[in-house]
C-alpha cells in the first residue's frame, strides 16, 4: 500500500520512537492521532516489533470478547 502512496505511520520505527519514547505518549494517544487511523493494539504490536517495549510481538493480540471477560450471557 505504501508503494501506492498510502501512508501507514504505525509502521515507521522513527515515528513510533519519537512519539512513544521521546514524547511519552501512550499507545492509545498515538492511535488516536488523526494521521494514524489504527487501534492501540496495532501500535503496541509495532512498538514490540521494533523493540521499543518489553513485549514480544507475537504475544500482542487483538483478543476476543470471550477472552476479555465479556462472556456474560443474556438471560431470556
UniProtKB/TrEMBL annotation:
Gene3D superfamilies, per database record: Homeodomain-like
Region (Disordered): 56-76
UniProt-recorded name of the protein: Uncharacterized protein
Species: Natrinema gari JCM 14663
Biased amino acid composition, Basic and acidic residues: 64-76
Amino acid at each position: 500500500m505504501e508503494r501506492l502512496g498510502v501512508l501507514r505511520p504505525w509502521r515507521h520505527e522513527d515515528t513510533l520512537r519519537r512519539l512513544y519514547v521521546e514524547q511519552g505518549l501512550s499507545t492509545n494517544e498515538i492511535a488516536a492521532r488523526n494521521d494514524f487511523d489504527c487501534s492501540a493494539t496495532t501500535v503496541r504490536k509495532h512498538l514490540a516489533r521494533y523493540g521499543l517495549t518489553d513485549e514480544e510481538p507475537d504475544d500482542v493480540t487483538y483478543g476476543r470478547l470471550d477472552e476479555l471477560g465479556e462472556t456474560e450471557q443474556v438471560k431470556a
